[in-house]
Structures are given as structure tokens and as C-alpha cells.
Amino acid sequence: MMLDDAVDERLIPANPVRRRSRRGRRRDNEPMPAERIWATPEQVVWIADQAAQLSNSHDYWLLTIATGWTGARWGEMTGLRRANTHLDGGCIVIDPDTGCLHESVHRMWL
């Protein structure tokens, strides 16, 4: 969108990342499904079991279960600290000061 705006303002001649239209039939005309498909709790457990078997670690099982059942994003889950988990109250708090784990090509930071 930013590159399209730059083209409109004549700051650059063309958007270098714009997809070119293809010739032939396109499937974009099909209607979007009315409802998103979510994994059932049983499917989340099955995916977590597979992750644990592939990694030989219970950590990946727990990370997959927590992510699948809370809906948290990858950065939020990997940036989570023990102090932010309140197991007695049954909640996980994403700290607004720390936030989540951010990754770039050469470093990671909270």
C-alpha cells in the first residue's frame, strides 16, 4: 500500500512488488467461505504430539498446546516469561512493556 501511494504521489515510477495479472482462467472469482476453519482441540493435541515426536522434546508439545488454545501469535508465545503466567488464576498476561519477541535478519529482541 505504501508503494502504491508512492506511485500515486509520483515519488517512484512503478510499484516493484505489484503482482502482474496472469493470462487465462483465474480462481479469484470463487466466493470466500463464510466461516473460517479452525483446528478442533483434538487436532491441536494431535499436532502437538507430532511436534513433540519430531523434536524429542516436551517443550514443543506445551508450546503448541498453549498457542493453539490461546490464539497467541508466535512472537507472543516465544517472548512469554514465567512471571507472566498466572497458573492459579488460569491466565497468561502479555506484558505491554516487554511485548513479544521480534526477529530480524541479524538479531532478536523483546
TrEMBL record:
Q: Where is the composition biased (Basic residues)?
A: 17-26
Q: Where is this region: Disordered?
A: 15-34
Q: Organism's domain of life? A: Bacteria
Which InterPro entries does this UniProt record tie to the protein? DNA_brk_join_enz
Name of the protein this chain belongs to: Phage integrase family protein
Q: Which organism is it from?
A: Lentzea miocenica
